Automatic annotation (TrEMBL), chain A:
GO terms for molecular function: dihydroorotate dehydrogenase activity. This is Unannotated protein. InterPro entries: Aldolase_TIM (IPR013785), DHO_dehydrogenase (IPR050074), DHOD_1B (IPR033888), Dihydroorotate_DH_1 (IPR024920), Dihydroorotate_DH_1_2 (IPR012135), Dihydroorotate_DH_cat (IPR005720), Dihydroorotate_DH_CS (IPR001295), Dihydroorotate_DH_I (IPR049622). It comes from freshwater metagenome. Pathway: Pyrimidine metabolism; UMP biosynthesis via de novo pathway.
From TrEMBL, chain B:
Keywords: 2Fe-2S, Electron transport, FAD, Flavoprotein, Iron, Iron-sulfur, Metal-binding, Transport. GO terms for molecular function: 2 iron, 2 sulfur cluster binding; flavin adenine dinucleotide binding; metal ion binding; oxidoreductase activity. Pfam families: DHODB_Fe-S_bind, NAD_binding_1. This is Unannotated protein. It comes from freshwater metagenome.
Length: 315, 278
């Protein structure tokens, strides 16, 4: 038995391990359940769900890029009602801890979604995805606008009441991430998910047109990891008490540790699961061993450890 | 456990052999008891590029045939063209190399319980999984005829041993370098009628599958096709490989070709909406 306390907390939600799926990267959960028991990871962050059935963007939706990929799924999903009757009971039956991710086109849609979640038991937290890059109008990316970001989180907080923790998922494609992070925390977010994909494009030189049906897409994978580490580091420096779910190209325990040291209280794994269905399990065990090897007694002691000063080191 | 991916396992599997067959590579992989779970139409997702590769996504390949009784236990055969970085890496594997695979994945061709006349149509190396299917159908007493097509002779994949289960084989090339000049659909309407075909099975480019569907629909013949859409994960989590498919209620929704396919009912695919915004 290791003496390491591997648990983490986001608001009042407790998780036995700091490892999560990234929203949109685990579908309904059933797909990964064949490869490992869902309850063995920290938690499942569900695919961002909207009010109604959504077909998503046209194909091709994917282009592989160096150490990464572009996707333009466009929030395809069954809508909140079908999601609550079909997907949530399955996850709870598997004894998975569940963070429900919601996405809306208007401030009101986010509140409507939050209202439907109030009465659902077995949910650990709500992720408010205000940063999906795959919407028709980039103006709808709330996370690029400090005021719109605050209004969404404020609406969700009021609707949910004080119980369920709110995690705001932010975009790195902004000039001043820290000010947006502060705004949503002021509005009632208990935690932050950093980062969503980075907006990108690939042009096919044979057809000489954009490769993706949706033209632009979100870049993910190890290619964006340094951007994610920077974002987590900057936000943790400004808001050291706010738990951060760090994500962006984490593919190994070492990558996860880097994110923890930057200031993340937990990590989400997305693209790595596409290449390796058991990635989350190996990242989890590698991270645990790396923390033990470095003499940490608790995951929490490692959160933001890269921020320590010379004095801290000698103290 | 979940009904999705229910037989799939992730394993490190040894390459038994890798032979060049024209422009293609025939790669045999030892998959042990998993061979018993593989059905014609299923595919395998393979990690490519080795550790620390910049290629982060698995590559999906149709399983062309499996053997449960070879000297080394259960094996699967893949027919691979070294087109891109990932397939080229796979074609460079040698005997004894271990590859990280997830298998079996996806839907299989449905085989009729009665021996019925069937027609198998392959485009390019899309013919590969049809030879394994032909053996299964032939063993059930079905009359199996085959049509293969490609742009040019070197792209036709038709191994000698594969022809044993096939009654007749017609070949079309667009440049006329072998077989008849033209496409697999040129005389398809008459062939289906003449052979009294009950089920058409196909694998190849999407335009070919769509053209076949137009003919099978006109003749009211079942068409099971193995679709091709770019995939990132192969296990149903990424939602990139979707196609517009008509459901039982007549409405069209985006289904994953890795979970609800690759074998789909051609008549249910809304071919005109592929690549369009629903």
């Amino acid at each position: 038995m290791s003496a390491l306390d591997f648990s983490t907390t986001i608001g009042n939600a407790w998780f036995p391990a700091p490892t999560f799926t990234a929203s949109g990267c685990a579908s309904s959960g059933r797909e990964l359940a064949q490869f490992f028991p869902l309850r063995e990871m920290g938690g499942v962050v569900t695919k961002s769900v909207m009010s109604r059935v959504r077909p998503g963007r046209p194909t091709p939706r994917m282009a592989e890029t160096p150490s990464g990929m572009l996707n333009s799924i466009g929030l395809q999903g069954p809508g909140i009602d079908a999601f609550l009757t079909q997907d949530i009971p399955y996850l709870i039956e598997q004894k998975a801890r569940v963070i429900v991710s919601i996405a809306g086109e208007t401030v009101e849609e986010y509140s409507t979604l939050a209202r439907k979640l109030r009465s659902v038991s077995g949910i650990s937290a709500v992720e408010v995805n205000i940063s999906c890059p795959n919407v028709e109008n980039r103006g709808l990316v709330f996370a690029c606008d400090p005021d719109a970001s605050r209004r969404v989180i404020d609406g969700v907080r009021r609707t949910l009441g004080g119980e369920l923790p709110i995690i705001a998922k932010l975009s790195p494609d902004v000039t001043d991430l820290v000010s947006i992070a502060k705004g949503v925390v002021d509005a009632g977010a208990d935690g932050l998910a950093l980062i969503n994909t980075v907006l990108g494009m690939v042009i096919n030189v044979n057809t000489m047109r954009p490769q993706l049906g949706g033209k632009t897409g979100g870049l993910s994978g190890p290619a964006i990891r340094p951007i994610a580490v920077r974002a987590v580091y900057q936000v943790h420096a400004a808001l050291p008490k706010t738990p951060i779910l760090g994500m962006g190209g984490i593919a190994s325990g070492k990558d996860a540790l880097e994110m923890i040291l930057a200031g993340a209280s937990g990590v989400s794994i997305g693209t790595a699961s596409f290449g390796n269905p058991t990635a989350i399990m190996s990242i989890q065990s590698e991270l645990k061993q790396l923390l033990i090897d470095r003499g940490f007694k608790s995951l929490k002691d490692a959160v933001g450890y890269a921020h320590r000063t010379e004095e801290d080191s000698h103290g | 456990m979940s009904p999705i991916n229910k037989n799939a396992k992730q394993v490190l599997a040894p390459v038994i052999s890798n032979k060049r067959v024209g422009i293609y590579h025939q790669i045999i992989v030892n998959i042990g008891d998993l061979a018993q779970k593989c059905k014609p139409g299923n595919f395998v997702a393979i990690k490519v590029g080795g550790d620390n590769s910049a290629l982060v996504l698995r590559r999906a390949f149709a399983i062309s045939r499996v053997s449960t009784s070879s000297a080394s236990g259960g094996t699967m055969e893949l027919i691979v063209a070294p087109h891109g970085q990932g397939s080229t890496w796979l074609c460079n594997r040698i005997e004894g190399d271990l590859i990280d695979i997830v298998v079996p994945l996806g839907t299989a061709f449905r085989v009729p319980t009665e021996p019925l006349p069937v027609l198998l149509i392959g485009g390019g190396y899309g013919s590969a999984p049809l030879f394994g299917l032909a053996e299964v159908l032939n063993a059930r007493g079905s009359r199996v005829d085959m049509i293969l097509g490609a742009s040019t002779a070197s792209s036709i994949y038709a191994p000698m041993e594969g022809k044993r289960a096939v009654n007749t084989m017609r070949i079309y090339t667009e440049d006329g370098s072998t077989g008849q000049t033209g496409r697999v659909t040129d005389h398809l309407y008459e062939q289906i009628k003449d052979l009294n075909v009950a089920v058409v099975y196909s694998c190849g480019p999407m335009a070919m599958l769509s053209a076949i569907t137009a003919i099978t629909t006109a003749l009211d013949v079942v068409h099971q096709c193995s679709v091709e859409e770019s995939m990132a994960c192969g296990i149903g989590v990424c939602m990139t490989c979707v196609l517009p498919v008509e459901g039982a209620d007549g409405s069209v929704s985006m289904l994953r070709s890795c979970i609800d396919g690759p074998v789909m009912d051609g008549e249910k695919v809304s071919w005109s909406q592929v690549g369009k915004q629903l």
